[in-house]
């Protein structure tokens, strides 16, 4: 990990820099139109999302199943299994996990009135969990799948046989993955262009982030020598005010910040930082779970009017959460970490990178929404379906940095994707530098 370490004094009344180092112009495009609300109708039932999810992904999962198992095997609906229950076949549907430890409002009421004592838990997985497959009409219990490795809402194809008890014995399972390859061709190997990803600034709750942030901005702007890479794009991926529900003493707190003066001070500080940074490069701000925007996914961009100095620069923009955008010839897709954290609660994937890779192969940004993760009640489509393979697939606000490059076979082309878990800056003083030609991700430590 590259480390930036320097001692300098901070005068909050003065601007960070008196001059600017002009970077190369950055090719940028916001591709998140499907995450932006056209209407705000909350009268719909959430069942429509699962119906649309299966419908949107049925063609691609059928293609992947034939690619994996061949064209000879029959693909049946659950209602057709009764006609020939002993035949080996493929069934397509949406997974549902029956979990005894899963929180429910009835259990919460019982706890409130002390009817039945409930244990406090952070992971709701047990050996009694069952996996059920649902299609448009019926459902069937699956045997032979490790329930701890999947979550509710995942679309898949299973190969196996229905037994005499009416359960489906699974021999193999297939997931859809991204529906299409990335539309972009990566930059030449010698382009030497980079993007910087960071998250979890926690400006309203962390008192020791400012020095490291200023050091990072000075390095990005070229004021710490000539060794800095050509970085012309910075993403702040959520956690601007707070990235966790725990305060400095480790106690669980609400989603609101107690002092309005803390919020005002934090926003003014962010405005100064973003204004300074966007003078020399493109800056994109995504919201997080505790940032000032709507709570349900997809979160809409933070209103840039709260950053009057920064919004004067055309290079300062706001994005949705999840977010999809183009930088140079690289397609970025990802979230501020809520879907990955939720998967960790309802499976045994404790490593965020494992959960991120799982969502990539599942072909869905937030499979547990709306079951255990709040989202808008979409009726006409499920916008979280992974339509194009991202070159960089990220999740932010994690406890540490982690990254790997994987390959995915679309049948006619094999394409690479960099998976990256962006660490919380307030906790690790670390950002992530992405090489836009090789997709290599490197942590940048900013210690003062």
TrEMBL record:
- Gene Ontology biological process: DNA strand elongation involved in DNA replication
Q: Name the GO cellular-component terms.
A: delta DNA polymerase complex
Q: Which UniProt keywords apply?
A: DNA replication
Q: Which residues form the DNA polymerase delta subunit OB-fold domain?
A: 45-173
A Pfam family of the record is DNA_pol_D_N
On whether Repeat is a keyword of this UniProt record, the answer is no
Q: Which residues form the DNA polymerase alpha/delta/epsilon subunit B domain?
A: 196-401
Q: Work out whether the entry's keyword set contains Ion transport.
A: no
**Gene Ontology MF, one:** DNA binding
Q: Which InterPro entries match?
A: DNA_pol_a/d/e_bsu (IPR007185), DNA_pol_D_N (IPR040663), DNA_pol_delta/II_ssu (IPR024826)
- Give the PANTHER family listed for this entry: DNA POLYMERASE DELTA SUBUNIT 2
User: Which family is this sequence assigned to?
Assistant: Belongs to the DNA polymerase delta/II small subunit family.
Name-wise, this protein is: DNA polymerase delta small subunit
Q: Specify the taxonomic lineage.
A: Eukaryota, Metazoa, Ecdysozoa, Arthropoda, Hexapoda
């Amino acid at each position: 990990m590259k480390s930036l370490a320097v001692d300098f004094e901070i005068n909050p009344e003065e601007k960070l820099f008196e001059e600017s180092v002009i970077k190369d112009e950055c090719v940028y495009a916001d591709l998140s139109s499907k995450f932006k609300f056209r209407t705000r109708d909350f009268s719909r039932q959430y069942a429509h999302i699962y119906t649309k999810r299966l419908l949107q992904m049925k063609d691609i999962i059928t293609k992947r199943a034939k690619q994996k198992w061949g064209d000879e095997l029959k693909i049946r609906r659950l209602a057709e299994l009764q006609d020939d229950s002993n035949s080996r076949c493929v069934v397509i549907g949406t997974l549902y996990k029956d979990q005894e430890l899963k929180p429910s409002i009835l259990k919460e009421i019982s706890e409130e009135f002390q009817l039945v004592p409930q244990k406090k838990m952070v992971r709701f997985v047990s050996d009694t969990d069952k996996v059920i497959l649902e299609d448009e009409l019926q459902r069937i219990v699956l045997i032979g799948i490790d329930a701890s490795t999947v979550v509710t809402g995942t679309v898949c194809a299973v190969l196996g046989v229905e037994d005499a008890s009416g359960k489906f014995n699974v021999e193999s399972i297939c997931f859809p993955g991204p529906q299409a390859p990335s539309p972009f061709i990566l930059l030449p190997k010698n382009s030497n262009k980079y993007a910087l990803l960071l998250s979890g600034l926690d400006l309203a709750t962390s008192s020791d982030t400012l020095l490291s942030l200023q050091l990072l901005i000075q390095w990005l702007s070229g004021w710490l020598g000539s060794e800095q890479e050509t970085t012309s794009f910075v993403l702040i991926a959520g956690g601007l005010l707070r990235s966790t529900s725990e305060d400095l003493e480790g106690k669980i707190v609400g989603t609101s910040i107690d002092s309005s003066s803390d919020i005002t001070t934090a926003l003014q500080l962010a405005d100064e930082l973003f204004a300074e940074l966007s003078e020399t490069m493109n800056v994109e701000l995504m919201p997080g779970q505790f940032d000032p925007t709507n709570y349900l996914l997809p979160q809409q961009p933070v209103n840039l009017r709260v950053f009057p100095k920064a919004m004067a620069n055309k290079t300062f923009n706001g994005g949705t959460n999840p977010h999809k955008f183009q930088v140079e010839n690289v397609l970025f897709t990802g979230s501020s970490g809520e879907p990955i954290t939720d998967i960790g609660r309802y499976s045994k994937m404790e490593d965020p990178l494992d959960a991120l890779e799982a969502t990539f192969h599942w072909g869905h940004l937030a499979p547990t929404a709306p079951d255990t993760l709040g989202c808008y009640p979409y009726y006409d489509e499920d916008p979280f379906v992974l339509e194009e393979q991202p070159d960089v697939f990220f999740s932010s606000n994690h406890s540490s940095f982690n990254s790997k490059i994987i390959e995915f076979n679309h049948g006619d082309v094999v394409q690479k994707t960099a998976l990256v878990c962006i660490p919380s800056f307030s906790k690790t003083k670390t950002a992530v530098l992405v090489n836009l030609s090789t997709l290599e991700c490197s942590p940048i430590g900013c210690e003062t």
